[in-house]
Amino acid sequence: MESHLSPPEKKKRVFSLIQPTAMPTLGNYLGALKNWKEMSELNDCIFGVADLHALTVRPEPAVFRRQSLEIFAMLLSIGLDPEKNIVFVQSRVEQHAQLAWILNCYTQFGEASRMTQFKEKAAAHEENVNVGLFAYPVLMAADILLYNSDFVPVGEDQRQHLEITRDIAERFNQLYGRTFTVPEAYIGKVGARIMSLQDPAKKMSKSDLNPKASVSVLDEPEVILKKFKSAVTDSEACVRYAEGKDGINNLMAIYSCCTGRDFPAIEKEFEGRGYGDFKTAVAEAVIEELRPVRESYLSLMKDSGYLAACIDAGCGKARAIAAKTLAKVSKKVGLLV
Ligand code: TYM
Question: What is the pTM of this model?
Answer without folding.
Answer: 0.95
